[in-house]
Amino acid sequence: MHIDLTGKVALVTGAGRGIGRNIADTLAQEGARTVVTDVRQADLDDVTQEFAHNGWEGRQYLCDVRDFARITDVVAEVVDTYGRIDVLVNNAGVGPGGPVEALSEEAWDMNLDVNLKGTFLMCKAVVPVMKRQRSGRILNAASFAAIVPSIGSAAYAASKAGVHYFTRVLAGEVGPWGITVNCYAPGMLPTDINDFAQSPPERQQRLLDTLTIRHWGRKEDVSNLLCFLASDLAGYITGTLIDVSGGKLATQIPRVAYDRAAAEGAYEFE
Ligand SMILES: NC(=O)c1ccc[n+]([C@@H]2O[C@H](COP(=O)([O-])OP(=O)(O)OC[C@H]3O[C@@H](n4cnc5c(N)ncnc54)[C@H](O)[C@@H]3O)[C@@H](O)[C@H]2O)c1
Question: Would residue 68 count as lying in a domain?
């Protein structure tokens, strides 16, 4: 099997850093002309430099996914430049949290506006382009939080659960045009959005205890999945949430298997 994205045009939101940046790099490496957007200009400049260094074709746009006027301008410019948009990755996300009684309205709105409404606005602008092409791939960042949320993540979890169901409905609406829409649940992957790898060792162990594959996620775990989903090979997959979180959603207490493996001498806890 050969995943080849040559000739495709991909747009990745929130691609200045973190998972989104790795997704953009990987799509470009596989031959896609990749457009990166973010709200942080310095990060965008950094990505552009990396693209130039590697000889990859692409463009960058400062674009807040909450700003529909700016989104429509960016989409129009991308279509002017490349003539099409084959892949849209709605990766941009935020996660300010806290217990419900202490959660500010601002934090609630931020989660819902960026994670859920931002995904909606990007799709609203790009779907007409994909309909004209009679093809397209839309990939939305959900989260394991959409299925098993953490305490203190009400706003984030609600937004990601919203992304999951938004994905299903949109997939149904655009199927006749050859467009597929899926979402994915990364994790637990240390980036600037979380403090997994900075937390005290006991908390880290507690978090790792929830994983079937007992180590932090890597950005390439997500990017590899997305390259496949973006390709022509994935045309029969739509309307689903794909878990790429080391089996966090698989069983209740995966630690039991590691204790057993340790008793058999097959595993050592660090
Ligand atoms: N890291 C994980 O373990 C994990 C787990 C589940 C889901 N996710 C999701 O994956 C996605 C990427 O997260 P990450 O871990 O790389 O975090 P990150 O904070 O490193 O990256 C998020 C990116 O989104 C950008 N962004 C924020 N607000 C924006 C806005 N209004 N408009 C445009 N861009 C904006 C940021 O500037 C940043 O570049 C997010 O949607 C996140 O919810 C991550």
Answer: yes
Task: Tell me the CATH number at 242.
Answer: 3.40.50.720
Grouped pLDDT means (10 residues each) for the chain, 270 residues: 94 98 97 98 97 95 98 98 98 97 98 98 99 98 97 98 98 98 97 94 96 98 98 98 97 97 95
* pTM of the entire predicted model: 0.98
CA–CA separation, 118 vs 91, rounded Å? Answer: 10
Torsion of CA 204, 209, 214, 219, to 10 degrees: -50
- Any residues with Cβ below 6 Å from ligand 1, and which? 13-14, 16-20, 38-40, 43, 64-66, 91-95, 114, 118, 141, 143, 186-189, 191-194
156 catalytic residue (yes or no): yes
Which two tokens mark 228? 């496949």
Q: How many domains does the chain have?
A: 1
Candidate list 61, 82, 156, 258, residue with the active-site label: 156
Q: Which atom of ligand 1 is nearest to the CA of 40?
A: 37
